């Protein structure tokens, strides 16, 4: 179990938040890329589903952690499918994680700055903002495709400093990806939380190197010296 976490806004006043698996349930993306895309790819190419999955999953494995892995334009070219149109068709399945909206409201009322840092492609961000309404809470939206570096790399974090008003020692970062969290820690972000259950349909996975966060309901705020 994860304990309650108090954020002292005298010391920390900037939240850097991931989107998929942190604010939004990763079940949508896992189902989309592991089931919907292979099914449509199989139909498009005339493959058996198992063959389509083998081809796609091997390619994903090769590209994991790169900008191409996160690019809907790349995967549209790779598969011959209109990935953006497919996401629009499935957008009703996009879900906000429990407690997120209440947390975002509390964070804003406490005076914290909120910045979204995501590897998601720009078109995907817009679909998810339109579907969930979470975009209204953010002072900044930083997309790795615009910085030409994924969040897993030091280049992304070096470029974030010039993209937004960032004082890293006063910042809290929340993400579900361990490689991304490691990059943030190496950069010197003041406080880092690991989301243990990004996909509501799967078991929680705890990591001993980070403070584990079960849900945003577990975060409280205070302000004192």
Please give a structural write-up.
It is a single chain. The protein is 44% helix and 16% strand. It starts with a strand and ends with a strand. With 225 residues, the chain is of the alpha/beta class. A six-stranded parallel β-sheet has the order 4-3-2-5-6-7, with helices on both faces. Strands 1-8 form a two-stranded parallel ribbon. Helix 1 (27-45) crosses helix 2. The chain has two domains: 5-25 and 95-222, 3-Layer(aba) Sandwich (Rossmann fold), CATH 3.40.50.1000; 28-92, no CATH class. The model has no long low-confidence stretch (mean pLDDT 96). The chain is built from ten helices and eight strands.
Distance between the termini: 29 Å
Low-confidence stretches: none
The helix/strand order is EEHHHHHHEHEHHEHEEE
Identify the strand order in the major beta sheet: 4-3-2-5-6-7
Q: What is the name of the CATH superfamily of the largest domain?
A: HAD superfamily/HAD-like
Q: How many whole angstroms does the radius of gyration measure?
A: 18 Å
Number of strands: 8
Q: Could you tell me the CATH topology label of the largest domain.
A: Rossmann fold
Overall average residue pLDDT: 96
Estimate nothing, just give the exact number of structural domains: 2
What class do helices, strands and sheet pairing give? Answer: alpha/beta
The CATH architecture name of the largest domain reads: 3-Layer(aba) Sandwich
The biggest sheet amounts to:
6 strands, parallel
> Which descriptor suits the 3D outline?
globular
CATH class of the largest domain: Alpha Beta
Beta fraction of the residues?
15-25%
